[in-house]
């Protein structure tokens, strides 16, 4: 994995996706993050504290100061709801910074799954969404509309059983190129 990641970085990728980070490749991954590469990775942990513990200790050994390159941690769970086994995003947590006094990560929980009702609640504050709004010149209402659109697209893909990465990629690319046409199709299928 380490050699594959190093080879990928030589290609100057736009995005780096690494499934199951668990060894010395973690340091290379965090170096890539620190230099501005958009990176998505998975690891097994049940909380932000567990993620930090796994990254900082052998065999990964990522220094604490490099962990500030993380923007977001998504903790997923497998649970039972309505008699069925389901997989849910338990919580979505922003990593804001490292406290210089305590060396602890400063975090913000943005979304949390409610197991009793099987819905996801927004905490009301997201620094990442605020950065996106500022960068794009969007209002709060425009950001909420964009999030609603993306939720509808995901629901539409779920209903249409669009799961293969190439099919998902085509839908997303179509949305970026012509969002109104895609939303017309999605909403006609969802609501009519």
Topology:
Layout: H1 2-10, E1 15-18, H2 25-34, E2 38-41, H3 48-56, E3 72-81, E4 84-98, E5 105-114, E6 119-122, H4 127-136, H5 140-159, H6 165-177, H7 179-191
Parallel strand pairs: 1-2
Antiparallel strand pairs: 3-4, 4-5, 5-6
Would you summarize the structure shown here?
The chain contains seven helices and six strands; from the N terminus they run αβαβαββββαααα.
CATH class of the largest domain: Alpha Beta
- How many angstroms does the end-to-end distance come to? 47 Å
Q: Output the CATH topology of the largest domain.
A: Rossmann fold
The number of helical segments is 7
Task: List the helices and strands in order.
Answer: HEHEHEEEEHHHH
Average predicted confidence as pLDDT = 93
Main sheet characteristics? 4 strands, antiparallel
Oligomer: single chain
Helix fraction by DSSP (H/I, runs of at least 4): 40-55%
Q: How many structural domains?
A: 2
Outline, from the CA principal axes?
globular
